[in-house]
Specification:
This protein is an alpha+beta fold. About 50% of the residues lie in helices and about 20% in strands. It contains 15 helices and 18 strands.
Amino acid sequence: MIKLNFYTKIVTLAVIMMIPIMLLYFYSNKITTDVLSEELGASNINQLVFFQNQVNTNIELVSSWPNLLIHDPDILSFQDIFLEDEYLNLDAINLVKRIQTKLSLQESSSNWDSSISIYSPSLGRVVSERDAQRYEASDLNKQIRPGWQVEKVAGDEGERFVFSWYTVSPFSAEQHPETANTIIKVEFDSSNIQDMLDRFKSDGRGDPFYFRKDMGVIYNRTANYELIDQLLRGLGDGEFKMNENRTLEVNGKQYMVSLVLSEDTGWYLIDYMPLSEIMAPIDQSNRLFYVSAGGLLLFSFLAAYMLYSQVQVPIRQLVAGFKRLAAGDYAVRMQRKGSHEFSFVADRFNQMVEQIQQLFEKVYMEKIHVREARLKQLQSQINPHFFYNCFSFMTSMAKLKKHEAVIAMSHHLSRYYRYTTRQERELVPLEEEIEFVTHYLEIQNMRMPRLSYSIDLPQRMDRLSVPPLMLQPLVENAVIHGIEQNAENGLIHVTAEFDQGCVRVHVDDNGKGMSGMDIFALEQKLHRQMDENMGCGVWNVYQRMRLRFGEKAGLAFSRSVYGGLRATLYWTDPESISARSNLYKCTGGG
C-alpha cells in the first residue's frame, strides 16, 4: 500500500475539493451556453421572420396592383377596343395616355422600383408607363404561369434576378391566355431586396442574404461572398426546414446559421454570425474562472507546502530524533530554522539530549571508575600472591647464596611496585609502560627460566602518550594463560608499529592459543557488560582505550605467528596530522 506523506495528502485533498467545483462549473457553463444558444437562435429566427414579413408585405403589395387596376374604367374600356387597322385613333391614344398616367401613379405609390405592363390581346399591344407597342402573343403565353416568376439576368454589376407576376382577366382564362381580355404584368428586380438587406444588415451584426437552390443567391452589397459560398456548401443539398438554426464550422471557426423560408417566393432568408463573438463574454468569464481556479490551486499547494515545511518536517525531524535517541545515539541534534515555535522545541530538544549525554557520560565514567576500583581491588588480591612468590624466590636464592639473583629480584620488584602505586597520572609515555612491562617480564623470567622475551619498540614511538597499566595486563595474560600452562619453553614478543598516525602494539606468545570461534567469542564479550567468566583486566583495558581514544580504538585478538595468541592494542595518535586525515583507517589488523 502506498504511504502518502502529509504534503501529498493536503495537495490530494485540495485537488479532490476542486474536482466537484470544476464539474459544477462545467455543468453550469454548459447549461448557460445551451440556453444562450437557444435564445439567440430564437431571437435570430424572430428577427428574420420579421424582416421576411416586411419583404413579403412589399411583394404582396406589388402583386395586389393588378387586382386594383383591372377594375379601373379606363382599363376596362381599353380591353373592349378592337382595331381593324394598325394605328390607334385619337380616342385610343388619349385612353392610353390616361392609363400610363395611372400606371405611373401606381408605381410611385411604393418604395420599390417596379414596373406595370398591361397587355390587350384584342389590340395586340402592351402599355407600360413610358411606351405602348405590339407584342408576340405566343411569347407571352409561354411566360404566363401562376405565382411569381423569377428570371436570372446578367447586368453590369453582376447577376440580378427579375421577379414577375401575371394577372389574367377574366380569371378563368388563366389556363388559356389567348382567350383573355386583359393581362397585367407586374415586375421588379432583386435590387429592391438588396436595399432591404443592406438596411437590415446595418441594424444588426449579421450578414443576411437570400438563397434558392434552383436559382442562386441574392447578396447584400457588402456581403462576404467567399464565406457565404462556404456556408452554403456546409448546408449541403438536403432539404431545409421552414425555420431552423444550424451550427457550421468554417476555417476552424463556428458560425450560427439561421434560415427562414418565404412561402410567397420560395426563397430562404439566411443570416449567420460567428459564435466566437457571441460567446466572447462567456469565454472571458471562463478564462477568468480558470485563472482564478488555477491561482487558488497554486496557493493551496503553496499553503500545503508551507504547512508541510513549517509543521510536518519539524515534527518528522523530532520523531526521527527521538528514535535515534531511543536507539542510544546521543549525538543527535535538531537543526534550528526560523524563529517559530518549532525552533524553540528544537532548542529545548538539543538541550535535553545534551544534558542526557552529559549524564550518561558521567554515569559511564562512574562505571569506569568502579571497574578500575575493582581492578585495583583484584590487583591487591593478586599482588600478595605475586609478592609471596617473589619473596619465596628471594628466600631460596638467599639460602643458595645467590646474592646477585636476590639483588636483581629486589631491584625489579621495587621498580614494579613503584610504577603500580603511581596511578594518579592519566597518561604516561609509552616508553615508561614498556619499561614497567620489562621489569615484570624480568621477574617472571627469574622465576621461570624457560620464559624468554623480546621487545621491539621504534625509537620515534617512545614519547607516545598512553593510559598507564594498558600493556601489562595483556603480557600477564600471555604469561599466566599461555606460558605457565605449557611445560615447554615460553616466548613473549612485544612489538609496536606506527603508520600514518595509527599506532599498534602487539603482544605475541607461543602458548596453546585459542581457536577462531573462541577468539570471536572473546571479542564479542568486550562489547558487553563484564561478567564473572571474563577477565577484569582485559575488559578494563578495552573500555579505557575506547574512552580515551574514541570508538575507533580498542583491543583485538588473532592467532600469533609463533603459534599462540596475539593481542593488539590500536588507536590513533591525536597529535599527528596524518592521523587526523586517516582517522578511520586505524584497525586492529597488522
